[in-house]
């Protein structure tokens, strides 16, 4: 399917299609957290990823070709009550996230990109909506829909797969898509994503009336695993390098009763 130029442009940005830096050492930093953080309760998982180049605070990493986020198996992400409906890519392209069922939404996020125009890059923000997508084989499909305003007004669809079991992860292969002809690629330098009920409203029919409600999110276990909840991410770049990052959410402090 041939996408509009604007769609391809933002797809390049949000998927991490970044300018090639010869022999660069890409870096990644990951932060994970829960909101609220109460064992045995429903929560929203919050992830924040920063991408850079070692030794260069303003460096632009090589384009990303693969991304994987490993999630602790004792978090019931697949078993949550999120994503009761399916949103299709064609609907997102035609009508945006508002065209999808409200109960297909999994979470919200944002990305910070730099547009290398002129002597100094222009910084822009893009909003992200995570939607439940069509199944990929026997696995769960996830669609990240990003939309930016000015100076780059465009939209994108970022497909992923959520794997369950003991190796629970969100994984995707990132296609390399050029930006405008003759222009440098756009750089994504950070992304934040929340998966859970925070900021979401689902709808149901009660006594013939449609009422809104906040869905249940990811269920935290009643006991914290030894050493806390461990998250890890791995990125592969077009120049052949890789970068990995990890984050640990420590166990909550419990107060002893007298």
The helix-and-strand class reads: mainly beta
Using only C-alpha atoms, the radius of gyration works out to 19 Å
Note the beta-strand portion. Answer: over 45%
- Dominant shape: globular
Tally of separate domains: 1
Give unreliable regions as ranges. 1-22
Helix-residue proportion: under 10%
Please trace the helix and strand order, writing H or E for each element.
Answer: HEEEHEEEEEEEEEEE
Number of DSSP strand runs:
14
Folded structure, characterized:
With 258 residues, this protein is mainly beta. The chain has one domain. 7% of the residues lie in helices and 46% in strands. The strands form two sheets. Strands 1, 2, 3, 4, 5, 6, 7, 8, 9, 12, 13 and 14 form a twelve-stranded antiparallel β-sheet that branches. The N terminus is likely disordered.
Give a short overview.
The protein is mainly β and 258 residues long. The chain has 2 helices and 14 strands, in the order H-E-E-E-H-E-E-E-E-E-E-E-E-E-E-E.
Topology:
Blueprint: H1 5-14, E1 26-35, E2 42-53, E3 64-70, H2 89-95, E4 105-115, E5 122-136, E6 139-148, E7 154-163, E8 169-173, E9 187-195, E10 202-206, E11 209-213, E12 218-219, E13 229-237, E14 242-249
Antiparallel strand pairs: 1-2, 2-9, 2-12, 3-8, 3-13, 4-5, 4-9, 5-6, 6-7, 7-8, 10-11, 13-14
